[in-house]
Amino acid sequence: MLLVRAGTVFVISFNIAMCAAVIFFRVLDGGDNLHNVLLAQSVVALTLVLTHSAAWFRQGGGDLSLAYVFFLMVFIFNCGKSLLFVFYPFSSISFFTFFNENDYQLIVQASEYSLVGMLVLSSAMLLTQYTKAPQQVAPTNIQLFAAQLTGGVFMLVSVPAAIIDLQAMLLLVLQGGYFALYSTEQTYGAAGIVKVLSYFLFPSLFISIIAFRKNKALVYAIIIFAVIYTLVRLAMGGRLNALIPFIVLMSLWDVTIRRLNRTFIYATSAIMISIVFPALSVFRTGVGEATTPHESGSGLFNIIKEMSDSIGPLAWTIQRVPTDYDFLYGHSFYLALTTAMPNFFWDVHPAKEGSLAKWLVHEVNPWIAEAGGGYGFSIFAEMYLNFNWFGMLALFVVGYFTTRLAIVKTNPINTAFCFACFIGLMLWPRGEVLGVGRFILWHVGIPWLFYHAAIFAFGRFR
Predict the structure, then answer these.
(1) In this predicted structure, what is the pLDDT of residue 346?
(2) How many CB atoms lie within 10 A of CB 232?
(3) Which DSSP symbol is given to 32?
(4) Cα distance between residue 84 and residue 117, in whole Å
(5) Which of 27-41, 62-76, 229-243 is predicted with the least confidence, judged by mean pLDDT?
(6) Burial 357-379 (b: 16+ CB within 10 A, else e)
(7) What DSSP string describes 371-436?
(8) Contact, 119 vs 391, CB < 8 A?
(9) Cα–Cα dist 462/460, whole Å
(10) Half-sphere exposure in the Cβ direction for 191 (13 Å, CA)
(11) All residues at 6 or more sequence positions from 159 whose CB lies less than 8 Å from its CB, including other chains
């Protein structure tokens, strides 16, 4: 036990030293050779991921742990350019979609903030992951009945809504391509009840898998439906939004039902990254997404280049804040909390007007904004915009609670609820906390309240 703790401290200290060295190298360089600075930052970023992974697995962490998946997603979307700098050093194709060599000073600043952010996340997760997961116990009969009622009710509500919403999205894509999904104004509350109800789909499936785990026919029917639903979403051009719920479902199954075959998972992942994602990228770019024309290059190169463009929002934010705009000092987190208030009186929740992604695209490219497109945002850009370098303290808290949330609970029903939160959290690496808060407060919070109300009712009137 002490050896593991000592190993963790060594890994964290080593990563701190590496980050400090590359910052010192950047200061010494003085802007004379920014390409070498970016290359050094890239080597350190990859080293940090490798040392984090080694320490994570050494302490008993799983490869399908949602905290580990979250960490990798933050890396690939915000620091993924490091893969290009290290493995494609002599490429004639630009690594950046929206920037060129004249912007390298800005990119160095954004990369440095992202690198330190990865260090903070890694440190928080390794220190928290040391906590040993408790032994699972079977739920009581009352808890089981309450979970069955909760899963059943929300499946009855969400499955038809999800099918209707999927059909509507499919028609939009067939008529106008993938970009049509975002050129149409999305509504919530009374005006968008079908879409709102469809978001209960996967949380209800998670609860039902645990609650009805002895009913193999129902459980496998749920899995088949989830697979078909995910494949259709992928066929429409979706990647992140389509795969995240299913990844969470696999993790839940792996830790509560039966360990999944790793060979199959790794082989499928390789096919998705090397073949499916590049094909979807061509489809998405061809219908007007906010990217430049598709450049020649390997499919893997292009998909890494596109997915790692989430460094853009951070760079643009650093460019404008605090020069043109003041820091938000936590305002975006406040807006995320206000999403707990129903928006029965508006087509679009007022908090959505404070969307950071919406602000950014209007700043960078008003034409794309008017067309309904966007560049997204990122967890690092949001931390910087709110707190500057003090955002690292907030990132440490995020790393701590994310890891705690991913730890398997004593009661598998509680595990299902906690894992459902990751459907929202996984959008944060290239999104903003507004969407995370809305999903957790509503589409996990309401079933959770229903479940506990059912426990109280069954206990009171049995």
Answers:
(1) 60
(2) 16
(3) S
(4) 20
(5) 229-243
(6) bbbbbebbbeebbeebbbbbbbb
(7) TT------HHHHHHHHHGGGHHHHHHHHHHHHHHHHSPPSSHHHHHHHHHHHHHHTTGGGS-HHHH
(8) no
(9) 6
(10) 11
(11) 201, 204, 225
Task: Name which of 74, 67, 72, 75 is nearest 131 in CA terms.
Answer: 67
Instruction: State both tokens at 152.
Output: 């059943």
Percent of the chain that is helix, strand, coil (3-state, to 5): 75, 0, 25
Contact residues for 419 (Cβ-Cβ < 8 A; gap 6+): 66, 206, 248, 251, 252, 406
Give the H/E segment covering residue 227: helix 216-235
The pLDDT score that the predictor gives to residue 291 is 43
Instruction: Produce one character per residue of 96-118: b if its CB has 16 or more CB atoms within 10 Å, e if not.
Output: bebbeeeebebbbbbbbbbbbbb
Question: Under a CB-based contact definition with an 8 Å cutoff, are residues 26 and 37 in contact?
Answer: yes
Q: Name the residue type at position 83.
A: L
Using DSSP, state whether 250 is helix, strand or coil.
helix
Burial 238-264 (b: 16+ CB within 10 A, else e): bbbebbbbbbbbbbbbbbbeeeeeeee
Stated length of the chain: 462
Torsion-angle region of residue 132: left (phi > 0), alpha (psi -120 to 50) or beta? beta
Instruction: Indicate the average pLDDT of the chain.
Output: 89
How far is the C-alpha of 59 from the C-alpha of 132, rounded, in Å? 9
| Ranges 6-20, 168-182, 386-400: which has the least confidence | 168-182
CA distance 286 to 343: 36
The model's pTM is 0.93
**Given CA atoms 39, 42, 48, 54 in this order, what sign does their dihedral have?**
negative
Which long-range contacts (C-beta less than 8 Å, at least 24 apart) are formed by 85-90?
Answer: 85/38, 85/39, 85/42, 86/39, 86/42, 86/43, 86/46, 88/301, 89/39
**d(C-alpha 5, C-alpha 239), whole Å:** 37
Give the sign of the dihedral formed by CA 140, CA 142, CA 143, CA 144.
positive
- The Cα–Cα gap between 357 and 341 comes to 21
**Cβ 222 vs Cβ 151: under 8 Å:** no
Closest CA to 405 of 387, 388, 428: 428
Written as six digits, the tokens of 110 are 């954004």
Give me 199's structure tokens: 């978001």
Buried-exposed string 32-63: b where 16+ CB fall within 10 A, e elsewhere: eebeebbbbbbebbbbbbebbbebbeebebbe
**What average pLDDT score do residues 435-442 get?**
94
